Amino acid sequence: MSKPGAARAAAAKALFDVLHEGRSLNQALPEASQTLTPADRAFCQAMCFQVLRALPSYEWFVNQLLAKPLKSKVRIVHYVLLVGICQLRDLRTPAHAAVGETVNAMPLLKQKALQGLVNGVLRNFQRQQASLEARLASDQQKSASLRTQHPGWLQKRLERAYPDQWERICEANNQPAPLWLRINLQHTSRDAYLDLLQAQGIDAITDQQLPTAIALQKAGDVTALPGFAEGWVSVQDRSAQFAAVLLDAQPGERVLDACSAPGGKTVHILERTPELQVDAMDHDATRLQRVAQNLARMGFSAQIICGDAADPTSWWDGTLYDRILLDAPCSATGVIRRHPDIKWLRRDADIDALVNLQKQILRAQWALLKPGGRLLYATCSVLPQENELQIIEFLEDEPTARVVPIEHAQGHGWQLLPSSLLADGHGGDGFYYCLLEKSTDKA
């Protein structure tokens, strides 16, 4: 059993690490919550995700309720207050538990002397919530960033790119992401797997475009799903499932999955066409271990390569590829609902740096492609600079490249925007795809 207040203390510590120290939630959360029970670990994650989704509003409440700013040496208390208000306002935590357990977190964070302050602020929030909410609503009319819960630079970029859709994109980013599964059709059919889920009382939704995709109505422990250990099913958003479909590797071909970690797309490529020679390459040796684990669980093999996609001379054996999947490093602005810390860690200046890196990698990978071969450029971004504009510039510079039409695509490539299942959307993440073919004509 976790200590009283431990889940709240862990959430505050993780949020401090993300928002004050600049660490990713993927790094901070496991470290902060490692000693918690599974139930407390899940609750800690729920608190962190919710605070990061609506951070401007929670910050606004704290600023209204504190008589004066906290000193820097007790900055952790600020994050304790965010966690407490989050529970009272949005997580439906009983008030006595939200306040009591949040106050109990203070000694665990070496801030016992300020327990009274935390108790007082949270009690005042309870008493004043109605009037505070009215004032917040008024301020939200004056501030798009406060209304959309997005930083100003990102909100402006989205508004420029999608003048009629940007607010819906922000709304989707602020919602919990559905849990999408990919059925391994080498082992079972989607209908048969749905029957297995139904037998366990698990409700699921199918996808009209993808015969492999289902979304669970309620998230749970994926390792407990029927057939998970045996490789019948994997976790993969429906938008990401289009990668292997569009790449459409054929039996006997030599395929490179550049920037492959953690390996979901590598495995899907092999599920569709097992008779391939696949190289799975990434620059991160630690994350490549995940690729190896995913391949082993699914019963597939691939050549795993640690190398720099922008500098193939350090790892490439000189043999050209028939197909290349380039899931390029990007701003990840299409998967904010899965990684809400992206909103607060990413900076406007990062975009130009990422665009330049993508440019280098795309040109380096193009040189590895056979004449007549195809390269699928993909990102989990919704920003045109990383997507369509990147491709337009590449086509201007590279006479051997042509765009292969994709159904539903408009312009240069196919831009998927994040969507909510509840809003009659596809329910997938934001993704971009452009399929390029290399000419067989000698320049």
Automatic annotation (TrEMBL):
The active site is at C380 (nucleophile). It comes from the Bacteria. GO terms for molecular function: RNA binding; rRNA (cytosine-C5-)-methyltransferase activity. The keyword Transferase applies. One of its GO terms (cellular component) is cytosol. S-adenosyl-L-methionine binds at C259, S260, A261, P262, G263, G264, K265, D282, D308, D327. It is found in: Cytoplasm. It catalyses: cytidine(967) in 16S rRNA + S-adenosyl-L-methionine = 5-methylcytidine(967) in 16S rRNA + S-adenosyl-L-homocysteine + H(+). Residues 169-439 form the SAM-dependent MTase RsmB/NOP-type domain. Keywords: Cytoplasm, Methyltransferase, RNA-binding, rRNA processing, S-adenosyl-L-methionine, Transferase. Specifically methylates the cytosine at position 967 (m5C967) of 16S rRNA. NCBIfam families: PRK10901.1, rsmB. Belongs to the class I-like SAM-binding methyltransferase superfamily. RsmB/NOP family. PANTHER family: NOL1_NOP2_SUN FAMILY PROTEIN _ ANTITERMINATION NUSB DOMAIN-CONTAINING PROTEIN, NOP2 YEAST -RELATED NOL1/NOP2/FMU SUN DOMAIN-CONTAINING. This is 16S rRNA (cytosine(967)-C(5))-methyltransferase. It comes from Aliidiomarina sanyensis.
